[in-house]
Structure formats: C-alpha cells, structure tokens
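Hi F.,

I've been meaning to write this up properly since the lab meeting, where we talked about keeping a consistent format for the predictions we share between groups. The idea is simple: the sequence comes first, exactly as it goes in, then the structure tokens exactly as they come out, then a line or two of notes. No screenshots and no reformatting. I'm using this chain as the first example so we have something concrete to point to.
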Amino acid sequence: MTFKPKTKEFTSTAGNEYTFQNVPNSKQAEIIDIGTGLQGKILNSRMMPQMLEHVVVVPSGLKMDEFETWEELEEVTTAAFNFLRTGQ
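Output, unedited:
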C-alpha cells in the first residue's frame, strides 16, 4: 500500500481556519518520539512546534508565539495531534 495523505479543515473557537494533513507512519513515530518525555508524557514545548510544522499545513510556517492566546494554540495543536493519530 502507498501512503496517501488525508487533510481536514478545522475552525478554531476564535474563528480562525486551519488545514491539517497527516504524515507517513515513520514520520508520525519520529514526531511522537520528539514530543514525549521519558514517561511517555507529551511535552508541550516540543510537541506543539511539531504539530505546527508537520501537521498544520494552512497557514504554513506557524510558530507558537504567533497565536494571540494559549487557549487557541492548545486547541489547534490538540486537534492536529488527534487528527494525526486517528485521521479524523
């Protein structure tokens, strides 16, 4: 089987629109390894940039500090992570 990326449109509570795209399983494993600590706990300072770089494709190149609030940053990156894991 060949990997075929899926996308999903997401609108935050603040009304901003984003497009998510999944990645191949090997890249997903790499992202999870980078973004989790020794006990398997997600480390926000590492996982959020991974979601913004590899999963949030529109707008591209987002950085954590470009979000007006922590609430929206957390909402978007959590939704991106859930999409990465489930494809939904």
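Notes:
Helices lie at 25-35, 44-54, 70-86.
The mean pLDDT is 96.

If this format works for you, I'll send the rest the same way.

G.
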